[in-house]
Write a sequence for this structure.
């Protein structure tokens, strides 16, 4: 997104992606109303309409027997829903739009391995090209958008503060029939939790396990996973056998962390490289996109003039710190008050369990339900496309 916007401002941009293609199992398919509005502003609504997305206007969670609905129906603006779209399609769409700009270049199969410096300033990157050759590329500004395990962040000596997480996620697929319930649903019940994401002819399933318990739970066998899943989502009983072994189940490490300073001279971190997000609320990719938009708005002019300073990088952090801190605080509250209690429990029969009081309140008060919908779908301080990038 940042590459596209800067290229539309006439800035020379090179995006390096270590993989040869985008066809990988990404974490997260949720494109919220804030991002849908942005795609409209960028004139990409027709391209988006061609993707295999599914629109949903509410999300249902069942927590210890209580139903919680997050409702998007009262959102401001044209998009009163959330789109579930495979991330590889979205990224291909964005890179195709960016490649239409003469000053944009995407280098696939190109892994950044370090930074180059001149005195204390980062002046570019070292990278491994598609032939395995190590090369250097100088840059007026280097942006680390390489995710939670950011190589660039580490090379620049920036260390995030970790907030901990009570969970990891098992990520796998099961077949979905045309008459199955559409959209996204979550169940948290009696020490177990799972989220089913409708991807058309299959469900992407996020199955929540206690942090660090992967090896121990794998040792219990695939049958235990199948049984636990069916106990939460009984309708999967006729297809859970499609899960034949743990080779089909990927472990996703959940982290929540944040850099105190998102930049140093010559380098800026955005997205998970600046602040790794938990899957809670499905907000991480939308927040990363919003960071990119704010960065493009603040940096395009100084980049064109060849005068980017640490003051401009500070302005990006100042703009995006508040929304990030609010959403991470909400994620951590849900971790502490719902998920950590659930996954630590051995009360698997659920006899002594009651829904958390806060959730009951959300369900009773429509205003709180709408606020939850707004925070998830728009986020605090949603960003608009800069004028120069609109089509
Ligand atoms: C289990 C789980 C589920 C989640 N579910 C959701 C969800 O449903 N919705 C949501 O919005 N968020 C979700 N999130 C959060 C979301 O995944 C992140 O917040 C989001 O992906 C951050 O985007 P990013 O672009 O900063 O980083 P990433 O999406 O991690 O992208 C980083 C990119 O950089 C590339 N890269 C990495 N290192 C290098 C290198 N050295 N050189 C070149 N390229 C490199 C990678 O290949 C990748 O393409 C989830 C997180 C977890 C852990």
């Amino acid at each position: 997104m940042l590459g596209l916007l800067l290229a539309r401002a006439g800035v020379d941009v090179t995006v390096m992606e270590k993989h040869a293609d985008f066809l990988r199992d990404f974490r997260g398919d949720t494109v919220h109303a804030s991002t849908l509005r942005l795609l409209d502003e960028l004139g990409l609504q027709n391209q988006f309409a061609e993707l295999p997305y599914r629109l949903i206007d509410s999300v249902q969670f069942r927590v210890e027997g209580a139903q919680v609905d997050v409702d998007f129906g009262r959102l401001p603006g044209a998009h009163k829903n959330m789109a579930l779209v495979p991330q590889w399609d979205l990224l291909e769409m964005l890179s195709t739009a960016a490649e239409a700009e003469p000053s944009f270049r995407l280098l696939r199969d190109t892994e950044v391995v370090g930074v180059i410096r001149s005195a204390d300033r980062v002046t570019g990157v070292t990278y491994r090209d598609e032939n395995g050759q190590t090369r250097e590329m100088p840059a007026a500004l280097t942006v680390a958008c390489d995710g939670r395990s950011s190589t660039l962040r580490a090379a620049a000596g920036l260390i995030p503060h970790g907030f901990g997480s009570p969970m990891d996620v098992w990520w796998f697929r099961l077949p979905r029939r045309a008459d199955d319930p559409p959209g996204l649903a979550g169940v948290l019940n009696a020490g177990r939790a799972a989220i089913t994401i409708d991807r058309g002819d299959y469900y992407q399933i996020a199955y929540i396990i206690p942090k660090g318990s992967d090896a121990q739970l794998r040792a219990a066998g695939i049958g235990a996973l199948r049984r636990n899943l069916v106990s939460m989502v009984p309708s999967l009983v006729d297809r859970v056998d499609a899960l034949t072994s743990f080779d089909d189940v990927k472990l996703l490490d959940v982290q929540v962390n944040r850099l105190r300073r998102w930049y140093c001279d010559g380098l800026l971190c955005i997205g998970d490289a600046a602040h790794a997000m938990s899957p809670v609320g499905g907000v991480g990719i939308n927040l990363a996109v919003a960071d990119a938009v704010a960065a493009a708005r603040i940096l395009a002019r100084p980049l064109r003039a060849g005068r980017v300073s640490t003051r401009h990088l500070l302005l990006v952090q100042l703009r995006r710190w508040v929304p990030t801190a609010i959403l991470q605080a909400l994620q951590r509250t849900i971790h502490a008050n719902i998920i950590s209690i659930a996954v630590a429990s051995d009360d698997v029969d659920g006899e002594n369990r009651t829904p958390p009081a806060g959730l009951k309140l959300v369900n009773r008060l429509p205003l709180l339900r709408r606020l939850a919908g707004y925070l998830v779908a728009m986020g605090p301080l949603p960003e608009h496309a800069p004028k120069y990038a609109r089509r």
Q: What stands out?
A: The CA atoms of residues 131 and 302 lie 34 Å apart. The pocket of flavin-adenine dinucleotide is lined by residues 16-19, 27-30, 111-112, 145-147, 151, 169, 206, 252, 254, 271-273, 277, 279, 282-286, 288 (CB under 6 Å). The mean pLDDT is 92. The radius of gyration is 21 Å.
